[in-house]
TrEMBL record:
The chain crosses the membrane at residues 50-70, 76-96, 117-136, 148-170, 182-208, 220-241, 253-279, 299-325, 337-357, 363-389, 410-430, 436-457. Keywords: Membrane, Transmembrane, Transmembrane helix, Transport. InterPro entries: CodB, Pur-cyt_permease, Pur-cyt_permease_Fcy2/21/22. This is Hydroxymethylpyrimidine transporter CytX. It is a multi-pass membrane protein.
């Protein structure tokens, strides 16, 4: 009896969903390299990646391809750096901001993180609900998205997606692993299918030679910012998973490969899908870059729409995990699973907002600008603080100790907060510089600037 009880306790500890600041012990780290790879392929091979590919197609095929091949590896290298911190320290990404921003100061990035991941889930849910609306139209004859009376159908679609989300996060990372394993198979099927169909309709040569209308063209710097912000949006979720990784490669190499493969493929599908549709119909409208509209126009049918819904669930499982665990960094009164349910329900409400906006595209671009502006400097501060200021040594026993080494000034590291505020201001100022908008964008320059400023301020000051 005692042996059975001990085994039951051990199983409970291994499968426990740890809160943000609880270090995951070695024996509870049960995510394999393959599971981590599948998680990040599933997170990136989704509706949002497809949509952003269609949006940056406004830079023409060559420009969009360059942006995809440059912006994403940089973002995912930053993700790997923070993923390693999560693996070594054992806590969530937002808990990792405690040594740099201070215990109370970490609430700022945590609140921002909750809003952005709820926002991402809402974006993906809305796009998936469009697919659901086309399916419901085929089955019941109700009007689809964009048609008169389509709002009612969209409400049903959002309800369906919300139920799928609740199922995907029902038991935390355990159910998420299952969803990702199943979802990655469907993702591969849809990616191959869409690529073949588009290239059967339109030649690759025609796609490469296509140019967007002048009034709808996108400067390459703006495309770089959009793609960089899209990929950087995943970085705050990385330690939620790498802290459960079995080894260093699982925490760094696997997510970097998975994220790049998933993003490259589905952004490429979005690029050629949007351009192929523009060539076929004679109209390029980035508002119609969502996969459901493209699938409908290319005649891929109900199965493809169903797969889009499934792939949205795999991506949103990661989003909801990150948002929920971030909530536990702010308050210890909410348990991890409860937090996941709270953010899932909140997301269902937020997803209703785009129904009443004039342009989903403008909302999407504005959301990406927000991510690049507020999170880029946060990542710079985390990386510099861990690798250069604290020399890869964080002490988790002080992560929640009032008056301890990470308490700083009444719980806030004013240096980090000041650098963050200054960096946001710099972003807003240099965003207006034409040469950056036409070349490398502003997101990565601001990350470098924030990191350098933080290092120069902190290198000769004793923080703890």
């Amino acid at each position: 009896m005692e042996i059975n009880e001990r085994k039951a306790v051990e199983v409970e500890i291994v499968h426990k969903e740890y809160s943000a600041i609880e270090p995951v012990p070695e024996y509870a780290r049960n995510i394999s390299f393959t599971d981590m790879l599948a998680t990040w392929i599933g997170a990136n091979a989704n509706n949002g990646s497809w949509y952003v590919g269609g949006v940056v197609a406004g830079s023409a095929f060559t420009g969009a391809l360059i942006v995809t091949l440059v912006a994403n590896p940089v973002a995912y290298f930053i993700m790997a750096l923070i993923g390693y911190i999560g693996y070594k320290v054992g806590t969530s990404t937002m808990a990792l901001t405690r040594p740099s921003f201070g215990i109370r100061g970490s609430y700022l990035p945590s609140i921002l993180n909750i809003t952005q991941f709820i926002g991402w889930t809402a974006v993906n849910t809305f796009i998936a609900a469009i697919s659901a609306s086309f399916l419901i139209k085929d089955l019941l004859g109700w009007p689809a998205f964009g048609e008169a009376g389509g709002q009612k159908t969209m409400l049903v679609g959002i309800g369906i997606m919300s139920i799928l989300h609740l199922l995907s996060i029902a038991t935390g990372r355990k159910s998420i692993k299952l969803v990702e394993r199943i979802g990655v198979v469907f993702i591969l099927i849809l990616g191959v299918w869409e690529t073949v169909v588009v290239l059967n309709h339109v030649s690759l040569t025609a796609i490469m030679n296509w140019r967007p209308p002048v009034d709808k063209s996108m400067p390459i710097g703006a495309a770089m910012d959009a793609m960089a912000a899209f990929s950087l949006g995943w970085v705050p979720a990385i330690a939620e998973f790498t802290r459960y990784g079995r080894n260093k490669n699982t925490a760094t190499v696997a997510p970097m490969i998975g994220a790049n493969v998933g993003l490259f493929w589905f952004a490429f599908v979005g690029i050629i899908g949007a351009i192929g549709t523009a060539i076929t119909t004679g109209v390029y409208d980035p508002n119609n870059s969502d996969p459901s509209t493209i699938v409908s126009k290319l005649g891929l049918g109900a199965v493809a729409l169903l797969i889009i819904i499934i792939t949205s669930t795999t991506a949103n499982a990661v989003n909801l995990m990150a948002a929920g665990i971030s909530l536990t960094n702010i308050t210890k009164k909410v348990k991890s699973i409860t937090a996941l349910w709270i953010v899932t329900i909140a997301t269902a409400v937020i997803t209703l907002i785009p129904l009443y906006l004039n342009s989903f595209l403008n909302t999407f671009i504005g959301f990406l600008d927000y991510i690049g502006m507020v999170f880029g400097p946060i990542f710079a501060i985390i990386v510099v603080d861990f690798y250069f200021i604290h020399k890869q040594k964080y002490d988790t026993k002080y992560f929640d100790e009032k008056g301890g080494k990470y308490w700083y000034s009444n719980g806030y590291n004013l240096y980090a907060i000041a650098v963050w505020v200054a960096s946001v201001i710099i972003y807003l100022i240099i965003k207006k510089i034409g040469i950056l908008n036409q070349s490398i964008g502003v997101t990565y320059p601001v990350i470098v600037i924030a990191g350098v400023i933080y290092y120069l301020i902190c290198k000769n000051r004793k923080l703890d």
